[in-house]
Amino acid sequence: MQSLFYTPRFPFNDMKTPLAYFVLLLCTAERFEAAPPGRVAEPVHAGRFWHITDLHLDPTYNLAPDPTKVCFSSKGVPATGAGPFGDYVCDSPYSLIQSAFMHIKSLVQPNDFFIWTGDSPPHVPVSELSTSMVIQVLSNLTQTIRQHFPNVTVFPAIGNHDYWPQDQLPTSTNDIYKAAARLWKPWLEDQALETLSQGGFYTQLVRTGIRVISVNSILYYGPNQATVNMSDPAGQFEWLEDTLEKADANKEKVFIIAHVPLGFLPFTRNLTAIRDEPNERLLNICRRYSHVIAGHFYGHTHKDSVMVLLDHKGEAVNSVFVSPAVTPIKSSWETYSNNPAVRLYFYDKQDFGILDIWQYFLNLTEANLKQRADWKLEYVMTKAFSLPDLRPVSLRRLALQLWVLPNSAFDTYFAHFTVGFDGLPPCRGECKLLQLCAMLFMDQSSYSACVGEQHHRHSLASDIL
Q1: Which of left, alpha, beta for 135 (phi over 0: left; psi -120 to 50: alpha)?
Q2: SS (H, E, C) 227-241
């Protein structure tokens, strides 16, 4: 399928296909294996910020004698492992969210800030919620964050569940956009609050040299019938380009945050997280302003993954991070869930490139057995994969290395994908292919070529590396 906005061009006249280009990339890669765990130190003179996402508070959670009545979010599926901090078929009880915040509170430093990428209400049928109930959940969690972190600035983004009916976020002002602006006023400036209340997006300077752009990616989300066939819902594309242009003129770098990520979902074939056409258009904008954008940060999938945006020459230009969720909920059709997680990023104070991730998690099964929430450091990304930093070139190196068969680094990556979920089946064949194609190819043309040439690529990767 030909891209509407961008067709990859591969360098060198003899490079006729993405497969040939992929071979060229593999030839430049260095072999590595996952590093063993050990003591680590923070990057020297680095800035820090925390990422929380997909809290999905379920206020109905209770340790009922009937396992089908423990939580509305399980939709009748028995919560057979239910304990004080939740169950894998349920959304978050308040105790789980509080334990996450208490863990962060023990580690937060005076100059830290937060990004909060959406989805506060639970996964329940539309009839179980209302506009007022969604606003109440947003209010409760906003107040909880403020109580735990009264002196920390938080930059939120709106998720698809942060509206009623879910997914149907409109292109103009409404009760929920206005409520979000009112609730987040302690963190955001007047200009940011104005665009937030009108379209669910905003920008604000974090500190000198670095700006957050909070994109309302639900305007491009497939299930959103309110924006079908709109070329620029809420004028956000025009606003985004204008904001990036101004940041460039002011010599600022930008962190883009949103709920639903760009690119392809890593656990299913040929499905973009947002609609195809907006995905291509946003990628085109991000390539054009890649020198301004210092990183992308998303939630929504509940899983832990990274992507690298390549330009038309195949150069790595942007690092893209999808953070795992606080909620552990697992749908009945899913093979695996995730343990609850929160994340700490380190960035370079000079060019604002991302230096490292410290991923924290709670083993939910263990916490329920011990009746105590012992949040732990799951991994440090540079150490886990022997990377110098998490800049685009380093993430491209990681993506290429994970193609190698056999390769223990991919097994490590996939274990982190579900935040150490117990009983994880191996990811081989189609599963591995989809993970790696999504990681390295974010536009339709190159992704389609990647998933379509799998047999050739696997044999070539083994031969070359």
Answers
A1: alpha
A2: HCCCCCHHHHHHHHH
Given this model, what pLDDT does residue 26 score? 52
pLDDT at position 422 = 85
CB 279 within 8 A of CB 220: yes
Tokens of 211: 């700006």
List, for residues 37-64, the tens digit of each pLDDT value: 456 789 988 999 999 999 999 999 999 9
State residue 2's pLDDT score: 29
The residue among 434, 134, 462, 167 whose CA lies nearest residue 307 is 434
Distance CA 135, CA 155 (A): 18
Cβ neighbors of 126 (< 8 A, separation 6 or more) are 164, 165, 166
Instruction: Give the type of residue at 366.
Output: E
pLDDT tops 60 at residue 336: yes
Instruction: List pLDDT tens digits, range 302-326.
Output: 999 999 999 989 999 999 999 999 9
Q: Cβ–Cβ contacts within 10 Å for residue 132, how many? A: 11
Predicted TM-score of the model (pTM): 0.91
Strand order in the sheet with 341-348: 154-156, 113-116, 46-52, 341-348, 354-361, 376-380
Amino acid identity for residue 211 in this structure: R
Q: Examine residue 165 and say whether the peptide bond preceding it is cis (omega within 30 degrees of 0).
A: yes
- Token match 């044999």: residue? 459
Average pLDDT, the chain: 90
Residue 399 is inside which H or E element, if any? helix 392-401
Reading the block at residue 91, the tokens are 């959304």
Grade residue 33 by pLDDT with cuts at 50, 70 and 90. Answer: very low
Cα-trace Rg, the chain: 21
Distance CA 277, CA 443 (A): 10
Counting residues of the chain whose pLDDT is more than 90, the rounded percentage is 83
How would you label 158-172 residue by residue, b for 16+ Cβ within 10 Å and e otherwise? bbbbbbbebbbbbbe
Contact 307, 4 (CB under 8 A): no
β-sheet bridge partners, residue 52: 116
- What is the number of alpha carbons within 13 Å of residue 297 lying toward its C-beta? 30
Q: Which residue has the tokens 């939120």?
A: 156
- Collect all residues with Cβ–Cβ distance below 8 Å to 283 and sequence separation of at least 6: 5, 6, 262, 263, 309, 442, 443
In the prediction, which pLDDT does 7 show? 30
